[in-house]
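Task: fold both queries, return tokens.
Query 1:
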Amino acid sequence: MELLDLINENLIVTGLEASNKEETIKKLIDMLEKEERLISREKFFEDVLFREQLCSTYVGQGVAIPHGKTDAVKKTSVAIGKLAKPIEWDEKENNYVNIVFLLAVQDKDADNQHLRILANIATKLMEKDFIDNLTSINDKDGILALFREDTKEL
């Protein structure tokens, strides 16, 4: 399975208007629900927030990767949001984000697939050209094309 198998143009939003972490996550969950990737949006939201309480998912460079591994997910997926304005992600650390990758992982994929997805995204984010391109692209097609350039088997 490739990262592109988990994303489509309906799971990407640019210019996302949100004022905080919870609102951002809810709006990305809306996209997952609309694409019929979730069994329960409420439970998935609770699971993602629970994970956030354990440890912030801010990864640097204005990026956060919140995630939930739960039976509330019907199909393992990734939703991507580029915010219109940066928001504070972690009050304690004063971290601001403008790009969010929300991972929705089925229980059955929790052990192996979850780590592969995180590793794949993290590897891409370490590449200066990738992060520069991701930051400058402001449309869904451009973001999908960026991921197509360097797909890896998960």
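Query 1 returned. Query 2:
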Amino acid sequence: MSGRSWVTRTAARLALRYAATHPETVSKVIFENPPWDMVLATKTLVLGGLPLLRELGLDDGVDELLAYEGPATAEMWEQRTGILHRLGDRRMEMYLGPASRDLVLPADSLPDEIQSRAGRFATEITKTPGFSESLLPYLERLTQPALLIKGGFDPVTSPEEIALFRSTVAGGVYQYYEGAGHFVHAERPAEYAELVTSFIVD
């Protein structure tokens, strides 16, 4: 995943932790394809890229990466995300729904220097103590209404994370967009805006 994209997903980790530990300051919380558990999220990411890796004959070593069940580490992160770099210019295909393959994201027009900063930020995150922590236990501490948005072709949020959200968060609302990918807000902007507005106002 590009650095800039991972920065936005990291915000979902911060949002969960903050909402759970400071409920008096957060009235509602919205998550879009979040990676709350790095082991699960990176496994889902590799699985998302696997069809394309196989199509291109670039899947050597994938089975070993998927078999890993240890804690989240910088090495695990580098190996699992690194294998997706083999896809080169086709890597973005795994993040978008079929109808959105020609989508140009606003971040794509940012200067290289800005995008480089995002990449460095993503790298630094893996060195922090919080990186290895699964935030799934925080879900049961959410007391405010929470909205989880999931694109059908999103390769980040795992089925396990979704299931736990749906079974644990009392005020949880789960919205699934079958044809969308990782960037639901950009792929289905009108529906996304209506959903988020309705959730916030109600």
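Both queries returned. Flag for query 2: The domain at 3-201 is CATH 3.40.50.1820 (Rossmann fold).
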